[in-house]
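Exercise 7.
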Amino acid sequence: MTARSDVHDHPLRRALPWFLLAGLCLSSLDATAKWLVRDNPVFLVVWARYVGQVLFVTPYVHYRAGPGFWRTRKPGLQLLRSMFLVLATACFFGGLRYLPLAEGSAVNFLAPIFMVVLSQRVIGERPSRARLVASIVGFSGILILMRPGSAVLHPAVLLIVLGALCNALYQLLTRKLLDENPNTTLFYSAVVGAVSLTLVLPWALPDDAFNRRDVGPFVLLGVFAGFGHFLLTRAFLRAPVALLAPFTYMQIMWATLYGVILFGQHPDALSALGMSVVVASGLGLAVYERSRYRLV
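Solution. The predicted structure, written as tokens, is:
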């Protein structure tokens, strides 16, 4: 194989566009969720996110994979993976009720660090030294965000940390489903949450829980979730977790922009520094990978 074909076959080139667009969709999902949890129960927002997603993705996967799209050789793994996603969503949305969007999202980016730390134990992928360094630098930025006196030092931050751990396990388990049809995996990402939450919905909400004026944002939850996880699944089928994980930090820029525009939340100087360190860790790894593999 020629050097030029090696460049074009490198997994980062094949996966990164999918991954970055997935980050934009998921940041849009987070902003919509924060908008909704201000006036609606968190459980209702999480439920709507999964019901909307399953309505969005089911016709697509049926079209792509045929009538047997739901059949899987690994039902237990699909169920476990999808339940980690449900837990990650519930914890993160619950934390966003009390924390600013940008800072809360930055704490949620403990997930890539958990991924790098756990990748060898869970899926047998050993992260390189550069990826470990990038994760350590990113973690130092999160420590700046969680300094005494910051807006992040609220009990709700524990929910977001737990959500980040669940999110990391969800993304790692995605790599263990490489031999599954990605459309089937996408379907289970939605249907497990939709079914499990719907079963307990009658007992979890008061009769007047739904705010009619929020119909549009509730619909957007499903659209952003469905498309975002479609792109994320495609990305992880094209590149190792440890290679893509640091690029998750790019979502901080979208979260900050949404926080300013939608909620008037301007990070203070130290919070901006912490988020900049987190973003720099991902960008530094991108430059390293580009130099290493001569991507052009």
